[in-house]
Amino acid sequence: MADNSSSNAYWKANVRIILISLAIWFACSFGMGIILRPALSGIHIGGADLGFWMAHNGSIYVFLGLIFTYAVLMNRLDREHGVEE
């Protein structure tokens, strides 16, 4: 029974990490690149306004950062639950 509760806690934490990562990526790509683009037009990065930059480059950089963050968090979670490789 204790093994089942540990397994449930592991997957609950795993799903929470995934949902938070998806929410951050959605906010950066869809939110800043599409919805907030008119409000961000006055801020310039590399010759383009921030909304355009986030739609084309920023969301990719955020995604790459999320990949590395996910790897670090999952390694930590694996160690906590004793399922590391």
What is the tally of beta strands?
A: 2
As for the number of domains, it is 1
- The fraction of residues assigned to DSSP E strands is under 5%
Strand arrangement, largest sheet? 1-2
Structural class: mainly alpha
Mean pLDDT: 87
Question: What is the string of SSEs from the N terminus onward?
Answer: HEEH
Protein name: Putative solute:sodium symporter small subunit
Organism: Rhodobacter capsulatus (Rhodopseudomonas capsulata)
Pfam family, one: DUF4212
InterPro entries: Na_symporter_ssu
Protein topology:
Layout: H1 2-35, E1 44-45, E2 48-49, H2 50-81
Antiparallel strand pairs: 1-2
Domain Sodium symporter small subunit: 8-84
InterPro entries: Na_symporter_ssu
Organism: Rhodobacter capsulatus
Looking at this protein, list some descriptive labels.
single chain, 85 residues, 2 strands, two-stranded antiparallel sheet, 2 helices, mainly alpha
Folded structure, characterized:
It is a single chain. With 85 residues, the chain is mainly alpha-helical. The chain has one domain (7-81). 78% of the residues lie in helices and 5% in strands. It has helices spanning 2-35, 50-81; strands at residues 44-45, 48-49. A two-stranded antiparallel ribbon has the order 1-2. A hairpin with a 2-residue loop joins β1 (44-45) and β2. α1 (2-35) packs antiparallel against α2 (50-81). The radius of gyration is 18 Å and the shape is elongated. The model has no long low-confidence stretch (mean pLDDT 87). It comes from Rhodobacter capsulatus. InterPro entries: Na_symporter_ssu. This is Putative solute:sodium symporter small subunit.
